[in-house]
Amino acid sequence: MGVIDLIARRAASILRVRPCGLCSDFDGTLSRIVPSANQARIEPSIRDVLESLTGQIDVIAIITGRSIDDVRRRVGLDGLVYIGNHGLERWEHGVYQVDPDALDWVPRIQKIAEELASRFSSPAVEVELKALSLSVHFRRTDDPAAVEQQLLGALEPLAKQHRLRLTRGRMVIELRPPIDRNKGTALADLIERRGLRAVVFLGDDRTDVDAMQMLASLRAAGRIEAMSIGVRSDEAPSELVEVADALVDGVEGVAALLEHLRRLL
Ligand SMILES: O=P(O)(O)OC[C@H]1O[C@H](O[C@H]2O[C@H](CO)[C@@H](O)[C@H](O)[C@H]2O)[C@H](O)[C@@H](O)[C@@H]1O
């Protein structure tokens, strides 16, 4: 029996406890990492599996740093729950909800995005405005490590000046409102709202560690059955590898795992 098969069997046993949820990050987990944010697309075989699991699993949720509009367009499945901007907004049963405190930050974030776009006019630095937050990408630069330092030099004072949170991900720096929301709190809310007793979560990056830690603490408190599956890559942060209950290799590993899961459930 292969590793993927063992992980799938464990995940399937958790998802037999009802009500259950299968929750996942998007970029680097369901979608391969590509040079530009706008080129990302869900892996077609993963989309098929998620579509066929809808109805068999009580809640399938995508919890992402992207905006809801963006990720819904890229996934294109209406039966899912979408949680965007690292937990500041959600779309569930066709209803969109946003953290009202986050709305106050929209004009300021837009202004900062415009400022950054003119300051870093190289086409290799991409400023992605997501209404409630913004991302500055440097994957396409010739020397990402050096550009990251330059960007941090500019973004750290800006974050301080505007009281924004600065977070880092895979060749990206993000500015977010100073609101105590992250993928962990978003997942805890979802568990509470939908009365979930079992959750499997998949993710590849630092912001996913919040969700994995939240699951670990709810499991330790005896509240839920849970399993965190990390996606291994050259860019995987060490905290993800430490906190995940199991690891699969890249988006291909996720696709293989979900296909196994479909057969087992
Ligand atoms: O929480 P996630 O769903 O993983 O979103 C995190 C960020 O992902 C996107 O950026 C990442 O993917 C890009 C496309 O593959 C890649 O070019 C970039 O280097 C990655 O950081 C997205 O653009 C961001 O808005 C998300 O916050």
Q: What is the string of helix and strand elements?
A: HEHEHEEEHHEEHEEHEHEHEH
- By CATH, the architecture of the largest domain is named 3-Layer(aba) Sandwich
Q: How do the strands line up in the largest sheet?
A: 5-4-3-2-1-10-11-12
Describe the main β-sheet briefly.
8 strands, mixed
* Helix amount: 40-55%
The third-level CATH topology of the largest domain is: Rossmann fold
Q: Which segments are poorly predicted (pLDDT under 50) over 5 or more consecutive residues?
A: none
Compute the number of structural domains: 2
First and last CA, distance: 18 Å
Count of individual helical segments: 10
Coarse shape: globular
- The number of distinct β-strands equals 12
Oligomer description: single chain
User: Structural class of the helices, strands and pairings?
Assistant: alpha/beta
Mean pLDDT score: 97
Q: From the alpha-carbon coordinates, what is the Rg to the nearest angstrom?
A: 18 Å
The small-molecule ligands in this entry are: the ligand O=P(O)(O)OC[C@H]1O[C@H](O[C@H]2O[C@H](CO)[C@@H](O)[C@H](O)[C@H]2O)[C@H](O)[C@@H](O)[C@@H]1O
Secondary-structure map:
Blueprint: H1 3-15, E1 20-24, H2 44-53, E2 59-63, H3 68-75, E3 81-84, E4 89-92, E5 95-98, H4 100-103, H5 106-119, E6 126-129, E7 134-137, H6 144-162, E8 165-169, E9 172-176, H7 183-194, E10 198-203, H8 206-220, E11 225-232, H9 238-243, E12 246-249, H10 250-264
Parallel strand pairs: 1-2, 1-10, 2-3, 10-11, 11-12
Antiparallel strand pairs: 3-4, 4-5, 6-7, 7-9, 8-9
Helix pairs in contact: 1-10, 2-10, 7-8
